[in-house]
Amino acid sequence: MYYKKLVGRKCYLSPIDVEDYEKYTEWVNDMEIGVGMIFSASLITETKEKEILERLADSEYNFAIIDKENDKLIGNIGFPKLDKINRVAELGIFIGDKEYWGKGYGVEAIKLLLDFGFSILNLHNIYLKVFEYNKPARRCYKKVGFKEVGRLREAKQIAGKRYDEISMDILATEYDSIYIKELIEKKMK
């Protein structure tokens, strides 16, 4: 069951449904989806994935990404690390359903989460890490407004070649609320 916590034009963010563990298990064991992610070298069983989803669902700010048109689960997004004192959070995302790659769902899900992070949680800085070879993800992050702020050189070895891990971030002053601002304006009428 999904709940529309943050709603965009193409997708919405819902609390994670632990009963989706079979779909997540399929995705995280698909090398094309997981290549270069932290779980790519792991063998993840349904039992292990259910435990992971239970932990994510119990933490405050992790969401399922749901196609608004048909209520279909397509991935997840959230803040796996959140420093409330300094108002800094790490963003993590993956689109597990390959049919949705390159169609703007990741961009919209990130914008929804950024809007929530900056407008509701009052965060100051949201950052992420991405491997150099993941050009589609890097384009997506730049499109949303993330800027490259550093590199850990040759941090990832895969298929006999070394790649940089790129750090990117965006500040609250660099992001203009879209979704939350619209909700507030509706309430003001």
Automatic annotation (TrEMBL):
Entry keyword Acetylation: no
Domain N-acetyltransferase: 11-173
Name used for this protein in its record: Acetyltransferase, GNAT family
InterPro entries with a match to the protein in the record: Acyl_CoA_acyltransferase, GNAT_dom
Lineage: superkingdom: Bacteria
SUPFAM superfamilies on file: Acyl-CoA N-acyltransferases (Nat)
Any one GO molecular function term: acyltransferase activity, transferring groups other than amino-acyl groups
Gene3D superfamilies: 3.40.630.30
Presence of keyword Transferase: yes
Organism field: Caldisalinibacter kiritimatiensis
Alphabetic keyword roster: Transferase
